[in-house]
Amino acid sequence: MPRLVNECDIPGLATPAGPYSHATILGNQLYVSGLIPWDDTGKLVGPGNVTLQAEFIFATLAKILAAVGSNAGDVAKVTIFLVNLSDRIALTEIRQNFFGKCRPASTLVQVSGLIGEGTLLEIEAIAGVRPS
Known about the structure:
By secondary structure, the chain is an alpha+beta fold. It has a single domain (about 25-130), classed as CATH 3.30.1330.40. It contains two helices and five strands; from the N terminus they run ββαβαββ. The protein has a five-stranded mixed beta sheet with strand order 1-2-5-3-4, with helices on one face.
């Protein structure tokens, strides 16, 4: 079984903004904290551009999944927090490219704001971890 995942295990991720880890493993499940579009220096990626922000977040999710030997096909559930509900249309193609034929359970929530000026979305996930 892979060990506990935290920000020290995954190169290229910004240090969490609070007392939490980017992801943890419990049993055979990976719980990924809400991912925001900040690079490893804490700088916002794609200000005002939901497409760039979503691509960055899904790339970050891929790094986390790979760190425990999982991939997009192992994702069981995603929750997306979106400032502008009209941006969900732009997310469709990005999600399809990331998940392919795999279609996890999903929740989309419109929010009035997110941490960091210009952050347009946040994505959290639950995934299975393959036995090692």
